[in-house]
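One record is set out below.
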Amino acid sequence: MSRLLHISASPRGAESISLAIARTFTDEYLATHPGSTVDHFDLWDGTLPEFGPAAAHAKMTVFGGGTPQGEQAQAWAAAVRTFERFDSYDRYLFSVPMWNSGVPYKLKQFIDVVSQPAMVFDVHPETGYRGLVTGKRAAVVYTSAVWGPGLGPEFGLDFQSTFFEEWLRWAGIADVQSVRHHPTLTGSYEHERKQADERAREIARTF
């Protein structure tokens, strides 16, 4: 029995295309994986902690082999809880709309909160970084309204999937599949949406 966590980066609720495609995925996943668990982490629900001065100082204290104290300890504990929630699943589904050629800032905030030493990564002076979130699988729903594959830079650039998939790889998640929905300003929305839903079901069945 697998545990799937859907981490959503869109604040648009029922109007969100990335969330709608993710629901197609989770519906198919539950239908084809009896007994499995699917939970939802809405990054906009107010539970994602900030990673400000206290947390940043705590991180450097941990890097140096120390133990955070006081306000720093509280900030660090919040980061640890968020990581533990994330790490308790073996499957991930991310719904990621494109914002300004990149990802929504709440998703970057999530990455900054959980990407901590001895949790998501360790680092060696000779061999560099090593991802610690191993043995897991991820699926990502990417959406955009203007940028699309094959369009020129006047329609934007893709720092959305390039950034996010590099983070997944860096964290140790090598098994990554994607669903894309990029109808562009002149494309066929219905055709693109149908293809995205079909792709979501296809991945979900064997995920």
